[in-house]
Amino acid sequence: MPIYALNGLTPVVDPTAFVHPTAVLIGDAIVGANCYVGPGASMRGDFGRVQLLDGANLQDNCVMHSFPGRIALVETNGHIGHGAILHGCTVGRDALVGMQAVIMDDAVIGEGAFVAAMSFVKSKEQVPPRVLVAGIPARVLRELSEQEMAWKRRGTEEYQELARRCLDGLRECAPLRAIEPDRPQNVSDVRPLGEYRSRTS
């Protein structure tokens, strides 16, 4: 995988974490235990630190970066959706950042909060714990339910399990020429939030 030391700082990856071979880690980039870093993700620790604490995930094509002397931090069990951008911000424990959302410098996403997909959280914004924010700029819409928090926790656990599966079994290979008969599918109880609500109501 593309991992680069810079200015005397070498990225750190816990042995229980999975970093996809196409992800890029530079300089002061730190990946904690049981983390998942997806294809095409970029953790650029060339100015400030970029860090994932234990159990966090940074999905496909996400970007983490920061100004010098600052940190872009995802706390324990933080969940960062495909294509999100985190710049010099803090994403709190058990928080979720939706796909293609942008979180700016010195913003803090509170513990267990959700940032909706494609939202923009402006610099220095303080998102309270356990609320849903959405929009450009993002605004608090409402508090989150226990059902929604349970859905998020289950999804994050699935990414932690994915990290283990990838460490154990992800291998580069040549493609098959055709679909084999009775091709198996991955099975899980994880569902989109709307479907999860209807099944657990």
Automatic annotation (TrEMBL):
Database matches in SUPFAM superfamilies: Trimeric LpxA-like enzymes (SSF51161)
Transmembrane regions listed in the UniProt entry: none
Signal peptide location: none
The organism's place on the tree of life at top rank: Bacteria
Listed InterPro entries: Hexapep, Transf_Hexapept/Carb_Anhydrase, Trimer_LpxA-like_sf
Pfam families the UniProt entry points to: Hexapep (PF00132)
Protein name from the UniProt record: Phenylacetic acid degradation protein PaaY
Native source organism of the sequence: Roseiterribacter gracilis
